Each structure stands twice: as structure tokens, then as C-alpha cells.
Amino acid sequence: MKYYCNPININYRYQFNADPRKHGEMQICREAADPSLILFQGRYYIFASMTLGVWVSDDLVNWENHRLPEELPLYDYAPDVRVLGDWVYFCASSREQNCDRWRTKDILNGPYEKIEGSFPFWDPNLFADDDGRVYFYWGCSNMTPIYGVELDPETMQPIGEKRELIFGDPYAIGYERIGENNSTLPASEDVIEAKYQAFVKAQGVPEEYLPADVRPLIRGMFSDKPYIEGAWMDKHNGKYYFQYAAPGTQYNTYSDGVYVGDNPLGPFTLAANNPYSYKPGGFLPGAGHGSTMQDKEGKLWHTATMRISVNHDFERRVGLWPAGFDTDGELFCNQRYGDWPMAAEGEPWRDPAWMLLSVNKVATASSFVPGHEPEKAAEENVQTWWRAASNSRDEWLCVDLGSVFDVHAVQVNFADDKIDIPCPGEIRPGSQARYIEEKDYTTQWKLEGSTDGESWFVIEDKSDAVTDLSHDLIVREEGFAARYLRLGNMAVPYGQNPCVSGLRVFGLGHGEKSAAARFHAERIEDLDMLVDIADQPDALGWNILFGSSPEKLYHSYMVFAPGPRRIGALIKGREYYLRVDAFNENGITQGVCIKLD
Predict the structure, then answer these.
(1) How far apart are CA 114 and CA 169, in angstroms?
(2) Structural domains in the chain, sorted by start
């Protein structure tokens, strides 16, 4: 059996961001986002923003990075890649100029043929219907919709006028509201207009002199409306499933919703199951702006953007989850334990193979920087980390599981903490001025285990690794006994002091599962519910599951502390059912399903 764990275990390149909003301050972080996942000639390919390349796999588990040709728009966001017959078509986003396309019959070796573009766009998506007709979708704004148009399949030029397809509606669709946990309602239209007019007046430029496409962007500066973006189209049993992302990539609730229609250019109706890709809790949240693909066996997978957003809003990773259509034609995605090791084979709603053992366990280290204590590496939060006081290879981090467990997998997650070095290359100008690191670096370490804290054995030695895997997964399907796990001999890019956001350990205990969760849940507004979970010492965490019926609890929110939790992803006028499952090192205890009142 093969296993993977989100974020996908691939190299993530550093970005040197010269953000004009930060007065020229350089912000350095790793980034990959907006993935297009395709199957082409028997292999899987992931194209993601700001990676300079493509990841290639034969099994969706083991990935290799390959550079793409320089003539492709590798510094433009949201690369869209689609298979049309024997060809693979590639394009990306630009608001400043007409966006060209490229096509090839050989992704890794080329050549790539250029097709001249005729208009600018952002967050593109190409869709080929089974009748040979081709459609194109684009849009990324909190003031304008996602558009669609038919294209000539030979020239890729528009046929007819573009259509407005999807607008945001955060007053009725809870998961579209911005903020952590969808916490912020947008300003009224009157407030937005007043702020817009005051801004224009302060600039001393008559409004009629402003380009028409600039005016909504300025209005958007004063709105708390969600970004509606990241289109992706699929067809199933004659229906068109129009997927889109909201409310913004920097929030834990970045998700993918779906509309359904009988025509590729609409009209579309909001599907019953929404958001269909949604992961606000756990170690690494976020599941928005992605793509849905059928694998070699005909099973569906969804890949999307996961959020860190500490060093920069666009500090992001790529996740992959099993998906599918239910018997009613509802598109779903299983993210219940969406950043735990998962078998790559099996039915979509398979449970994780092993349980999380390390959350909130005792951690010690050779040293630490105040504010980055060793316990930060065991609290299941990618936004916090242990930081060593030096970059010496003698630094170490150790997690004590509390007793001996059967360990089957360890995920080693390195973080970056305010890197301050000169940019090693030339900043590319533009609205997202940056330099993408060209050089390949290495991340090295050694992982040891012990049952008693005195005698140690090597689990994995990557002291001389030539890879740069900042979210590396080590699997031992047969398992081994350990109480202590110690990470040492670390060396990371740019000579940083090693920082670890998660030394995450998975396996199985020998005790009892926790009791069933005790909780109270109620709907407190049209778009919100409150779930209050009672403390139970035998549980390590809880998974709040909800959906349109007891059989369709497709949405989940993982938490590691009892008490009240507001979830703001509901849709006005719809009924919901809810269940809270408790888990510990020994397994998952299913809770009682209730109807939400």
C-alpha cells in the first residue's frame, strides 16, 4: 500500500516578494498554489503558481520536479493546463497584457507552440466538452464576476460575447464571507460608494478619466466582499459542475464551491453540497482554488491551495484529497482527516490508516528562541514553530509521546522565520514584483526513536540528502515501537536556524478509544452555528461533521480543544445535520447525529 500526507511532499520554491504595499520591504517565503492536476499519457502532472516547473508522478504519491521552458509565463499566477486530444494547453494570468497560450504534445521535452492571445484575464480555465466545443472561464475579483465564453478550438479566439456567470453572495452564502472562520460581513454598497468617491476626489482626477476596468478594482479596496476566483469546470452525467474559490487565499476558510447547470455557459444553480472542498481546521487549513481530475482507475481527486500566510499572505502549499459524485450527482471531497497520512487506494470516504499521536505531547529541545518554544512543534498549528537558537548541526528537537506506541509514519515540517538575506536574483516588475529562487537547495536531518529515552535507533537518516522537502513524510507500514522521537543533524536553506512547525507522529495505541463526544450545537444566525464541545480527558481532538442529511456529512472542522466553536459556512435557508466524532491515539469514536435547530 502507498501512503501520502498533505501538504504534498514536493519541493516548494522560495519567493523574494518586493510588495509595493509593504514600502519595498522584502518578504521571503515558499509558495505554490492554484494547482492544475491532469492525467496525460499515463502520468500525472501538477502545475502550480510560482514553481518554475511541473511535478510529475506515476502514482499520485511520489513526485519529481521538472523545469519548464523559459518562454512560458512562469511568473504569472494560476497556470491553467488542460488536455485536448493529443495536446496539452497552457496559459496563466495577466491583467496588464493579452494572455497568450502554448500547447505541446510532450510536457517535459516540448516543443511548445505559441498561440497569440487577444485579451487579458486572471485565473483562467479551459474546458473541452465531449461534443468538441471549447469554453473558457476567468475572473478573480471582489467586485466583478467570473466570466465565460466559447472559443474557436483551432484559433482559441472568442466566439461571441463573454457572459457573466457567477457573482459572490456573502449575505446568503456563509462560506463566501472573508475573515478567519468566515467572520466578516461585507460593507454595504452605500459605504463602498462613499469611500470610492472620497478616494477619487482626493486623487484630484475626474472619475471619467479612470479606465473602466480600474474603477471596480478601486471600489474593491473599500469592500469586505469575498474574492470570487479560481474557476474549474467538469462534466458528469450530462451536467456541468462549475467550481470556484472564495473568500480569499489568506484565510483558513479558503474553499471551493460548486454550481451546477445544463449548459457550459449557464445558467447555474448553487449545488446542494457546498462548499464541496473545505478544510478550516487541523494542522494546515485551506482547500481553495484547485482542480478536479479522474485518475487511471476512474476515481476522482481534488487538489487545491492550503494556507500558511505568516511570512506573506501568499505563503501557501498544495493539498490532494479523494473526491467523487454521490448517487444524487453531488460533487464531494473527503477532508475529514485531510492532513493525516492516507492510503492512496480505497473508497473516497476511507478513514485514515493511523491516528495522530503527537498533538500537545511534551516536547524538548537543545535550545529555543523565546516565542518559539519546542512545544510549538507539537500543537498542530502550521503558523507556529520551534526555532533553534543557532544553526549548528548539534541542535535537536524531541517529542515524548507519553508511552510506547506502534509508530507507522512521521511528517517532518520545516518552517521559515523572517529570513533576512539579499535577493539572489533580479526582481521581475509588475503588480506582484518578485524573484523566484532558481537554485536548488537541500533540507537535511536525521530522525531517531527510542522506547526509554536512553537507547536510540535510526528511523531515517537524511543527513546527506540532495532533496529540499520541507514537509517530508516517512512511512513504516510494518510499524516500530517508540515513545520518543528525536530530530537532529539539521541543515536548511540559506543557513537558517532550523524551525519546525510540526514533528507529527502517527500510529496506533493499545488502549481504549475515547468516549463519545458530548456537545451542544445550535444555529445562531442564518449563516452561523455554534458547537460547544465538553471536555473529555480521554480525547485528543474532535471532528465536527455537518451536511444536508445524516448520510451526507460532507463538511468537517477538526479541533483540538474543547469549548465553543463558531462555524460560519452555512447557506441561508438550508437544513443541516451535525455529528461530532472524538478521537485519540487508539481510534475514532463516532458521535450522535442531530438536526441543527
Answers:
(1) 38
(2) 31-186+224-343 (2.115.10.20), 187-223 (no CATH), 355-508 (2.60.120.260), 519-595 (2.60.40.10)
Q: Which residues pair with 64 in a beta bridge?
A: 56
Residue 540, C-alpha cell as written in the block:
485528543
Q: 174 forms bridges with which residues in the sheet?
A: none
CA dist 193 and 222 (Å) reads 9
Secondary structure letter of residue 79 according to DSSP: -
Phi, psi of 190 (to 5 degrees): -65, -45
Burial of 375 (0-12, 13-18, 19+ CB in 10 A): middle
pLDDT digits (tens, 9 = 90+) for 542-577: 999 999 999 999 999 999 999 999 999 999 999 999
Task: List strand residue ranges (DSSP E) for 139-280, in order.
Answer: 146-151, 158-166, 229-236, 239-246, 255-261, 268-270
User: What letter would DSSP give residue 128?
Assistant: E
For residue 463, give the C-alpha cell: 543527513
Q: Using CA atoms, how far apart are residues 23 and 260, in angstroms rounded to an integer?
A: 43
Ramachandran bin of 161, using left for φ above 0, alpha for ψ from -120 to 50, beta for the remaining angles: beta
The residues near 453 (Cβ < 8 Å, ≥ 6 apart) are: 400, 483, 484
Residue with cell 485531510: 338
Pairing relation of β-strands 555-559 and 342-343? unpaired
Q: Which cell is 97 given?
A: 497584457
The model's pTM is: 0.94
Which DSSP symbol is given to 366?
S
